[in-house]
Amino acid sequence: MTKQLSLQQITACGIAQETAAAMLPQINQWLSSLPAVECWQHLTQDILKPNQPFHFHELLYQTTFADWQTGQPPAWFPSDEQIQSTNIAALMKQLNVNSYPELHAWSAQRRGEFWEIMIQRLGIRFQQSYSKIVDLSQGVESPQWLVDGRLNIAESCFLADENATAIIFQEEGGSLSTLTYSELHRLTNRVANGLVQAGFVTGDAIAIALPMTAESVAIYLGIVKAGCVVVSIADSFAPAEIAMRLHLAQAKAIFTQDYVWRCGKQLPLYSKIVDANAPRAIVLGSSVELRSGDLTWKEFLSQNEQFEAVIAHPAAHTNILFSSGTTGVPKAIPWTQTTPIKCAVDGHLHQDIHPGDVVAWPTNLGWMMGPWLIYASLINRGTIALYYGTPTEREFGEFIQNAHVNILGVVPSLVSIWKTTACMQGLDWSSIKAFSSTGECSNPQDMLFLMSQAGYKPIIEYCGGTEIGGAYLTSTVVQAAAPSTFTTPALGLDLVIFDESGQSSDTGEVFIITPSIGLSTEIINKDHHQVYFAHTPASSLRRHGDQIERLSNGYYRTHGRVDDTMNLGGIKVSSMEIEQILNTVEGICEAVAIAYSPPEGGPSQLIVYAVLESHIQPNKELLKNSLQTAIRQQLNPLFKIQDLVIIDTLPRTASNKVMRRVLREDYQEAKHYDCHRTQTFPA
């Protein structure tokens, strides 16, 4: 079919008539004479600019690919020159491999060799060399990596030139500051010495409840270097949630600070730590009075800038992180000395981090992407970019511009805010080579918008989890990038998809083919086998809990969770965790939390179904506010209730379990008809 645009269509997008008239003949010539891919490349290089209205970008994208048949059309195509500059191309050349599919197949079939080569490429530092890359004598559930090796992974974070920039950072309203690798190393050593001088010993669990700052990076690495174990706690959690995590990890101390700034507001943090009855605290900031036994940062920090890293077994714990299960108690998942290798390899190959690259990812050490950012950036000899304010404001975008960020990580809900508020309009993000998106399902329209903000650069969709140390499903910079789609299983592992009847399928539940460096082998407070391996289709398959679809072009799309776990704003949380709090609200007989995935794609939305006590007169908005307040005060203020549905009864199985799947289907149907009805289910 002939593709042509009119002057009126372009001006309706907000383009001035004179400008539209000047560009229209060239646009229509390309539309009518070139294949869609070639046409789009001309349009993105010569016509489309980040400061133009996004409706104009959408119009040209939709028109160009109007007759596209195979899935979401790509919006970025790598040139031969771009491909040849990548770490993947260098690896392919090293292996004499001719195509990306061949590379992935090789990495999945010869896993030991793959991981050994990547350890060599990254220059991972060992104090005692390993005799064998992996021992599978105890089965694929319990692989023994780096047999006989000894290391401290923090040492591999300081292999760059000591004068290279390790961290570039900016406080809200401030100016850019930097730490060199040498300066970060010295601060890390001062933390490690401070821990020893304070009486802590190898294996002690030391918690961190801090925003992502230069100091928190040094604290994290100092704990690891001292042979202790980081306990990751998000600073947004309520005291009860902090207390639970401290207890599960048996933390001996906690690093925190007096206040945090969020959206221009000063929010107390140290007082939450006190309310959580935390152990000994080391407190940054000087505006609060401390408990007896707690230390200020200045009192704690050693003046000794030299420290010999404590050498450990590859399976020794370095970090305890928390990932929600379906019972309401989070899974305490330990990372070992080998897990950061997965972070660094993913960053090297999939995000294509090179020495000197500046990597920004608004995150927190309470979530796996905080430690991931440290290891993926520093082991690859890159620079971590940290902005201390909220990433939803224009000043964050100015930081990305002024810090010359090369790889920018996001959660999709953040992009949605940027698009809605147009707060990043007119900024120069031309230094960005690639975006990366993780934490929740993304919306193709939002992701196209994000690509347009940097003159069309690829988005590395990145799906994994705490128990993987990175991704099992991702993208690359050597494959065309289509908004909201994944291009490949991660290098070094593979996956299969099964439908509800247990048959191999292109749509259904995903299972990871083990083993791989990064995959957990234990959970501190649960049975690892029962959580990940029991009742899977084969003994080598590991459950992850995501629903995915393999598209006709070989790409992938995610469809949320199979179980009752949800991702809200990039944070994994179980229905049970939320419901335990909702059910304490006055007037609630029983409440159920579900995640609703919009049909157009994008982040999951929190929907609450509530059965009221018989004497309560339903007032939806008042009740929704009460429920939101309870979540904010007792769990996490970042979890927002999108909608409240008041019902008479909940759907249950014969064994009296709530059927959340039925509620999800009910809500989806209600949204389809654009109405919310009170629904009664048979008891």
List the helices and strands and how they pair.
Layout: H1 7-11, H2 17-33, H3 36-46, H4 54-64, H5 80-84, H6 87-95, H7 100-109, H8 111-122, E1 132-135, E2 144-147, E3 165-170, E4 177-180, H9 181-197, E5 205-208, H10 214-225, E6 229-232, H11 239-249, E7 253-257, E8 259-262, E9 265-268, H12 270-275, E10 280-284, E11 295-296, H13 297-300, E12 317-323, E13 331-336, H14 339-349, E14 358-360, H15 369-378, E15 383-387, H16 394-402, E16 407-410, H17 412-421, E17 434-437, H18 444-452, E18 459-461, E19 463-465, E20 470-474, E21 488-489, E22 494-498, E23 507-513, H19 528-532, E24 541-550, E25 556-561, E26 565-568, E27 571-574, H20 575-582, E28 588-596, E29 605-612, H21 620-634, E30 641-647, H22 660-672
Parallel strand pairs: 3-15, 5-6, 5-7, 6-12, 7-10, 10-11, 14-15, 14-16, 16-17, 17-18, 29-30
Antiparallel strand pairs: 1-2, 3-4, 8-9, 12-13, 19-20, 20-21, 22-23, 23-24, 24-25, 26-27, 28-29
Description:
This protein is α/β, with parallel strands linked by helices and 683 residues long. The protein contains 22 helices and 30 strands. The strands form 8 sheets. Strands 4-3-15-14-16-17-18 form a 7-stranded mixed sheet. β5 (205-208), α10 and β6 form a beta-alpha-beta unit. The chain is globular, with a radius of gyration of 25 Å. The N and C termini lie far apart (56 Å). Mean pLDDT is 92; it is low at 675-683.
Would you report the number of β strands? 30
Tell me the structural class.
alpha/beta
Main sheet makeup: 7 strands, mixed
Q: pLDDT under 50 segments (min length 5)?
A: 675-683
Instruction: Give the mean pLDDT.
Output: 92
Distance between the termini: 56 Å
Strand order of the largest sheet: 4-3-15-14-16-17-18
Radius of gyration: 25 Å
- Indicate the proportion of strand residues: 15-25%
Approximate helicity band: 25-40%
Shape: globular
Number of helices: 22
